[in-house]
């Protein structure tokens, strides 16, 4: 599987691999990629298979498949060790990768994500939604999701962010998004595995996140001994876009402290 990706910053910079959520693409990380590249990091932002410009014929894509794709990309780019970050589904893929490929990750970013299993109702909802978007496409689904993806404050004050988020969701390939929903419904419980994570970890969540509220981030923080929790006030499920300055500052501080030196 060949993933589309952007590779910004100096080739010899500290590698940072960022994993987008559902139903987005690699442009979700543009504010962080440009900022960190300017700080001397090498930032790789792929489109997951079935999203953005990465094609797929899968009807079901489990999170271990996404994780293996990312490791293959890292190997191709010569990144033996790297900082790994993910938001929402991207965070769950990160947890899967850390479990399946120990020793590859030097530090972690887990943003607005959830380690546990879905309830039976939530699992069925993913399966039903996959069927719906396969039949109807992404447009109506995107319109339904938007009010839950970003906070009311963001919608009132950041029309640029609202437009970007809506565009990503509407443009997501329905087959790839449906395949991911089906695979995600079958994901394992990552909660106990969090206790085995021994690398520096930044846990970030928007204060107004409806999908993965602050309590979920606090749960992750409690389970990872070497973790720091940052709550971004006024942001919803996408604090990296809604409050990019605050998010980037938290990430800067974390990357500096986890490397022992400014990049």
Give structural notes.
This protein has 12 helices and 7 strands. With 263 residues, it is an alpha/beta fold. The protein has a single domain, classed as Rossmann fold (3-Layer(aba) Sandwich). The chain has a 7-stranded mixed β-sheet, sandwiched between helices. The longest helix has 17 residues. It is globular, with a radius of gyration of 17 Å. The relative contact order is 0.17.
Properties at a glance:
7-stranded mixed β-sheet, 263 residues, alpha/beta, Rossmann fold, globular, 12 helices, single chain
Short structural description:
With 263 residues, the protein is α/β, with parallel strands linked by helices. The protein has helices spanning 30-38, 63-76, 89-100, 120-136, 139-149, 152-157, 159-171, 174-184, 191-194, 214-223, 239-242, 244-259, and strands at 5-8, 15-19, 42-46, 82-87, 105-111, 201-206, 227-232. The protein has a single domain, classed as 3-Layer(aba) Sandwich (Rossmann fold), CATH 3.40.50.1820.
Q: Note the total helix count.
A: 12
Distance between the termini: 32 Å
What is the CATH top level name?
Alpha Beta
Oligomer: single chain
Q: How would you write the strand order of the largest sheet?
A: 1-3-2-4-5-6-7
Keywords: Hydrolase
Domain AB hydrolase-1: 15-242
Pfam families: Abhydrolase_1
Protein name: Hydrolase
What's the arrangement of secondary structure elements?
Elements: E1 5-8, E2 15-19, H1 30-38, E3 42-46, H2 63-76, E4 82-87, H3 89-100, E5 105-111, H4 120-136, H5 139-149, H6 152-157, H7 159-171, H8 174-184, H9 191-194, E6 201-206, H10 214-223, E7 227-232, H11 239-242, H12 244-259
Parallel strand pairs: 2-3, 2-4, 4-5, 5-6, 6-7
Antiparallel strand pairs: 1-3
Domain AB hydrolase-1: 15-242
InterPro entries: AB_hydrolase_1 (IPR000073), AB_hydrolase_fold (IPR029058), AB_hydrolase_sf (IPR050266), Epox_hydrolase-like (IPR000639)
Keywords: Hydrolase
